[in-house]
Design brief:
Rossmann fold, six-stranded parallel beta sheet, Alpha-Beta Plaits, binds NADP nicotinamide-adenine-dinucleotide phosphate, Dihydrodipicolinate Reductase, domain 2
């Protein structure tokens, strides 16, 4: 028996998949009991020079050579994007081909629909590489923690923004220079907006929270804020208070209600997530039974991502040999119930510029009192020329509703020049 793979795409990840399957043939055969071969590879240009030696006759520009080819057993999708990728994946599944994908955009948007098509056709659809590249986080949620009840997950799931924030924090690099460095190293795209605005992390949090809570979380449920407004001052004050600013994906469940967000968050320096630096990813999970666990590793890169893909391929082949493909549980047990602003509680950091005059502080304290908000820490910095004095506050736990009301009321005080920034505090 030989299992034949059709590879859609031969870019960073596609090359990694091809190399691992070629170079680890003996280990693969030991694991699955048969030969595994990449039989066809879809590219746009067969003559393009690539960083891998590959026989030209297996390259094709016609997707039908893979998705409508009766000899192909498994389609590995590493094209990226939604169109025409979703159409290709649907067609492959309808032709009873198992699919392994690294595509978070596709899974976040069409995951449920594709999983249903897969199940109807007794096919597997696996997507381990779509979140946190080389970290086996999806398998850990689906299998490892299956018997536990997850209450909260915190994730650094975007390597680009973690790299930028690390440079800003450790080396005092400006946001602009850190973005340019990330681009030069290949960690950021020419247009980095999907990363720096938090959209990439939001898609990954849709995938993780849907699995963790067995609930149909949609992208529109994720409150998303990126890192573009984080200033050197924010990072400096956070440091003085014992925190590191990270772009965190956060999801919690309480009494069946869920909230999901991606936002810059002050993480205490003693928390393991504060030590996750550069392009690395980590997901921190709170389970009722297991307590706290952290999964850490490379979030991207050709070979780490390809490793996750090939382990999905191994799972598909093991299922093929046992005749149990298409058994993934697709039914989501819990009704989608998203918390309202008065059900979401957190501590917050705020940096306020005020006129340097008597009585300002008592005005702010009054706003806090009216909104049931109290101070945990206060720093006051002397006159900053035209920007007045600066007050940095960390609050106690407060509802998002009351915090939002306070921000609005503080901004309206005549003594206040403006709230410069505000962030969640973990
Ligand atoms: N890069 C990572 O570290 C990473 C990590 C986790 C997940 N992923 C996911 O993995 C997927 C692939 O990422 P990548 O970095 O490998 O992308 P990439 O380097 O841009 O490669 C994409 C490949 O697909 C081919 N392609 C795209 N559209 C095509 C079409 N319509 N017809 C034929 N070929 C087409 C491209 O052809 P050409 O070579 O001709 O341009 C290229 O070979 C994405 O979904 C991404 O989100 C990537």
């Amino acid at each position: 028996m030989k299992v034949r793979i059709g590879l859609l795409g031969l870019g960073t990840v596609g090359i990694g998949v091809y190399q691992i399957i070629q170079n680890h043939q003996i280990q693969l055969q030991q694991q699955v009991g048969c030969a595994v071969e990449v039989s066809k590879v879809l590219v746009r240009d067969v003559k393009k020079k690539r960083e891998v030696e590959i026989p030209e006759d297996i390259l094709t520009i016609d997707v039908n050579d893979i998705i409508n080819n009766p000899n192909i057993d498994i389609v590995v999708e590493v094209l990226g994007g939604i169109h025409p990728t979703s159409e290709y994946v649907k067609q492959a599944l309808k032709n009873k081909k198992h699919v392994v994908t690294a595509n978070k955009d596709l899974i976040a948007q069409f995951g449920q629909e594709l999983l249903k098509i897969a199940k109807d056709n007794q096919c597997d659809l696996f997507y381990e590489a779509s979140v946190a590249g080389g970290i086996p986080i999806i398998r850990s949620l689906v299998d490892g923690l299956a018997s536990d009840k997850i209450t909260k997950m915190l994730g650094i799931v975007n390597g680009t923004t973690n790299y930028i924030l690390t440079k800003m924090t450790n080396e005092g690099t400006s946001y602009h220079d850190a973005v340019e460095q990330a681009k030069a190293l290949g960690f950021a795209e020419a247009d980095p907006s999907a990363d720096v605005e938090g959209f990439d992390a939001a898609r990954k949090m849709v995938i993780l929270s849907s699995l963790a809570f067995s609930m149909n979380i949609e992208l529109s449920d994720v409150y998303t804020a990126g890192i573009t407004n984080i200033s050197k001052e924010d990072i400096e004050y956070a440091k003085q208070l014992g925190y590191t600013i990270k772009l965190l994906g956060l999801t919690t469940r309480r009494h069946g209600e869920v909230d999901v967000s991606v936002q810059p968050t002050l993480v205490p320096n003693h928390h393991p997530l504060a030590t996750v630096e550069n392009e690395y990813n980590a997901v921190y999970i709170y389970g009722k039974a297991v307590g706290e666990t952290m999964f850490y590793g490379p979030g991207a890169g050709g070979l780490p991502t390809a490793t996750s893909i090939v382990s999905d391929v191994v799972s598909v082949i093991k299922n093929m040999r046992l005749g149990v493909n298409g058994q993934t549980i697709t039914h989501q047990h819990n009704k989608r119930t998203i918390k309202t602003k008065d059900q979401i509680f957190s501590k917050y950091f705020m940096r306020i510029n005020v006129k340097d005059e008597v009585g300002v502080f008592s005005k702010i304290a009054n706003v806090f009192l009216e909104n049931e908000l109290s101070f945990e820490t206060i720093l006051q910095k002397p006159n900053l020329n035209d920007r007045g004095a600066e007050i940095i506050i960390i609050t106690h736990q407060v509802s998002l509703q009351n915090f939002t009301n306070s921000l609005k009321a503080i901004n309206q005080l005549p003594e206040v020049i403006g709230v410069q920034s505000s962030y969640r505090v973990e």
